[in-house]
Amino acid sequence: MVLRSVIRLLLIASFLSSGIFIPEANGQLAKLPRPDSLGSVFFGGAVAIDGDWAIVGATGDDRCGLNAGSAWVYRRDGSSWKATQRLEASVCEEGAFFGKAVALDGKRIAVSAFRTFIGRAVSNHVYVFELEDDVWTQTARLSSPDRDASGPFASSIDLDGDRLLITSAGDASGSGANGKGFVFRASDDEWSLESTLVSPLPLGSGTLGTSAAMDGRWAVVSGSTYSRQQPGFVAVYRRDGDAWSHHTTVRGVDGFFIDVDIRDDLLLIGESRGGSQGSGSANLLRFRDDEWQRLVTLRPKSPYAAGAFGTRVALGNDVVLVSGFDEQLELDFNVDQVVYVFESSRDGWRQRRVIDVGESAFGAAIALDRDKALIGQAAEGIRGHVYMATIK
Fold first, then answer.
1. 123-144, pLDDT tens digit by residue?
2. Which pTM was predicted?
3. Is residue 343 within 8 Å of 291, Cβ to Cβ?
4. What does the DSSP assignment read for 22-70?
5. Which of 372, 351, 364, 373 is nearest to 323 (CA)?
6. CA angle 81, 321, 157 (to 5 degrees)
7. SS3 helix, strand, coil % of the chain, rounded to 5?
C-alpha cells in the first residue's frame, strides 16, 4: 500500500509535467451539476453541445417506466452551466431507452429512443424539440420509413440545420437487414424523408448504421462487422442540391464500434483496433481533387496493446478529441479511460494534452464546440457524470 501511494504521487507529478488536465490544479475541467433524482441511469452516455446549450442522455431514467429514459438540457450561465429542463418522450414507454443518442444544432434538439431486437421488430423513434421562449418543446416524432426492414431504427443521429440524419443499425447475424441512413428535412414545421442512404457493400462486409455524422454537403455512416476478425467500413455520401449519392467507401476500418465525425472537408474515423498490437488509431482524411485523401493517422504518444484508442472521436476546426485507455504502467489503479487532445499547427497534428479523471468509464461520449469539450462518464452500475473541459 505504501509503495502504491508513492507510485501514485510520482504519477501525479508526471501528469502535471506532461500537460494532463488535473481539475484541482488548473480549473480547466468542471463537472456539470448532476440531477439529484438520478441513480445509476447511464447519465452521460450521450452528449452534444452547441454554443450556450448542451444536452445529456440518461437512458436508464425510470421516472415514467423502467429504462424509459430521459435527456437533460443545460444552459451556460456566465462561466457555469445549469440544468434547465428534463426531456422525455411524449409517448413514454418502459424499455424505450430514450436518450441513447442526442444531437443539437442551434434551436433544435434531436433525441433517439433506441432498443435492439431480434426477429420481431419493435418501434423506435427520434424526437425533435425546438426552442421557443427559453423552453424546449417536442415538435416531431419520427419513425422508421421502411418499417424496420433495415434493422432497429434510431441507432445514431446527427443534426445539421434543417436536416436530420438517422440510421438503422442493421443485423450482423445475416438476416438480410443491412442497415440504412435516412436524411429527413424540415420545411414549414414538417419533416419529410429527403433521401435513403443504402450500404455500398454486401451484408457480410458490415452493417451500415453504427455511427453517423453530417455537415453541409456530406453525410458519413460507419458499418461494423461486429467481429474481432473482420474490419468494417465507412461510407461517405455527398449532396448535390436535394439529391444524395454515395461518393466514397473507406474499407478495412478495424474497430468493433466505428465512431465518425465530419466537419467541412475533414473526416475523422476512429479505429479502436488499428495500429500496432491493436493499440488503436484515428484517421483524419481531407477532401481534395474530388477524393478523400488520408491526411494523418493519429496515435497516442505512448500506445499500448489493445488500448482502444479511437473508441470515440470528435472533430473541431483545428482540434481533434479521441478517447482511449491509459494503462501504460499496467497498475490496477491506473486502468482508466482518457480523452486525448490533438491540435493542428504548422508542424502538423500533434498530441497536446490528455484529459484524465482516473475513471474507466470516462470518455464514453464526447462532443466538441469551439474551445469547449463535453465528456460523458457512463457505465452500468455507476453514477454517471458529465465534464466540461476548456480545450484552449
1. 899 999 999 999 999 999 999 9
2. 0.90
3. no
4. -HHHH--EEEPPPPTT--SS-EEEEEEEETTEEEEEETT--TTSTT-BE
5. 364
6. 75
7. 10, 55, 40
